[in-house]
Structure formats: C-alpha cells, structure tokens
Amino acid sequence: MPRDVEARVLQNTRLSPDYNVITLAAPEIAAATRPGQFVMVRSSHGSDPLLRRPFSVFEIVRSGNRIEGLSLLSKRIGVTTRLLFDAVEGDVISCLGPLGRPFDPVSPPSEAWMVAGGVGLAPFATLTEALLERGAKTTLFYGARTGAELFYLDWFASRGVRLVLSTEDGSKGERGRVTLPLEQALRETSSEVMIYACGPERMLEAVSHVAGKFKTPAQVSVERVMGCGMGGCYSCVIPVREAGGRHHYVRSCLAGPVFTASDLVWDHE
Questions:
Q1: Nearest alpha carbon to residue 7 among 71, 81, 95
Q2: What value does the mean pLDDT of the chain take?
Q3: Taking a C-beta distance cutoff of 8 angstroms, is the pair 57, 97 a contact?
Q4: Is 225 helix (H, G, I), strand (E, B) or coil?
Q5: pLDDT tens by residue, 93-143
C-alpha cells in the first residue's frame, strides 16, 4: 500500500539553471519502491498548487545498509518544479507513494537497453541497480537537446553501464534524436535485448516503432498529467489495444506508468 508522508528535504543539488535532484527523507516509501514507480508530491507550504504532481523515483538513498530516503530528478517548468528547485534543507514536501506499475528487469542472457530523453532518465537509476543485481549487461541510450542537459554520466558509467549519447545540437555524442543510434544498434546486434524507455511521448512512440521493426520487446514509462495518482480522477487515461483492431482506455497511474510498448495506441498511427 502507498504511504503518505511529510518528507523533510535532506539535500537539493542543482545540476544546471533548470535541473535539480532533491533528496527527501521518506525511507518507508523508498524501501517499498520498485524500478519505474513514482510518487505524487507537492510543497507543504500554501495551497498553490492545489494538486500533487507525479515524479519517478530517481535514487534510493542509503547510508551504509540503512535506507534514508529517495531522490527526484526535476526540471523547473511549472509551479511544483519551481518549488522543488527552490527548496532548501529542512523544508517539508508532501510525498505519496510508491505508486504505479514498475519495470520488469531482465536477467542474462538478455541485455537491457535503456532509452532516456531529458528527465526521462529518472527511472533508470533504480532500474540500473536492479539489473546489476541480476548481472544483466546494460546500455543507456541517452538523448537531450544539448550536452549540458546530459546528467549523471559518471554515475552510470561507474556501474558498468555502456553509454550511447546523442544531442540535437551535436554538442555531445551523435547529432540527432536518440532513436537513431538505437535503431543502428538493433540492426547490428545478435543479442537478445529488452528495451526500456522513458521520455516525451513522441520519443516513446518512435522507440515503439523501432522496436516493432526489429521485433524487439520494449517496456515504456509514459508521462501523463495526473491529478491524484491513484485512479480517482481519470486525468491520465491512455488507449491500449484490443483484439480486432479496437482499443479501450486505461488509467496510466494504475495500469502503468510502465506498459508493454506494443500494447499502446500511439497518436500518429
């Protein structure tokens, strides 16, 4: 069952003028979190915003063998993300979780190929840890607009993750969208692969089509607006396939946020 806690801010690390990683003292939630699950958060000060906002759990924060809390990777865009960016140690954040359907980590001989766009990197720290426990060979295809928006590269590299980088402006890695090196790698590999993807839905749609082209299984974590995170408001519905070419809608906070890519009906099909 999810827990609702008033979590004290342990640390707020600003990665750039807009990105930050905030660490919250929510050990009960952290201990129960599986890779790909999320929390609903808002500041405990004031009523703006009125509703919480969803964030994938980034890291499970430990001190030795003791779990101290969890961290969130955030980009300053709206009211909630500005509050998270400006938070200081000792502030209190309302935190509800863990919520949602997690990733299903593979084991050898399967390889894990993670595909992240921007803050879509968020669920892949916990997934990396789970894959390492299983001994799965892991690659991160990581794309952003510029090289300045590629974060935690040393963290992933230190854990043996192979990095394949791409930027839209060509300032780091290959120039272009992250799906380009992914498609090239699928064309060249003879390994059994599971793709995991998180990022803007146009990127997820492209990843799904590339995976389908090479008959490669893929799990995608969708980013939908959520009002409650527990299925009560129906703000996060997403279409999934039925037999006979039909589809129906499910709540991504309950049936997801992780879905089998081939089950989803994309906007541009």
A1: 95
A2: 94
A3: yes
A4: coil
A5: 999 999 999 999 999 999 999 999 999 999 999 999 999 999 999 999 999
Clarify whether residues 161 and 95 are in a common domain. Answer: no
Is residue 159 within 8 A of residue 167, CB to CB? The reply is no
C-alpha 162/C-alpha 148 separation (Å) is 19
Classify each residue of 216-253 as buried b or exposed e, where b means 16 or more C-beta atoms within 10 Å of its C-beta: bbbbbbbbeebbbbeeeeeebebbbeeeeeeeeebbbb
Of 190, 196, 178, 239, nearest in space to 214 by CA: 190
249's enclosing H/E stretch is: strand 247-251
DSSP class of residue 72? Answer: E
What's the rounded Cα separation, in Å, for the pair 103 and 36? 5
The position carrying tokens 């299925």 is 231
The domain that contains 163 carries what CATH number?
A: 3.40.50.80
CATH number of the domain residue 34 falls in: 2.40.30.10
Residue 268 included in any domain: no
Give which of 67, 114, 72 is closest to 258, Cα–Cα: 114
**pTM for this structure?**
0.95
Specify the amino acid at residue 10.
Answer: L
User: Could you say which DSSP state residue 265 is in?
Assistant: P
Q: Residue 108: count other Cβ atoms within 10 Å of its Cβ.
A: 12
Q: What is the pLDDT of residues 6-49, one digit of tens each?
A: 999 999 999 999 999 999 999 999 999 999 999 999 876 655 66
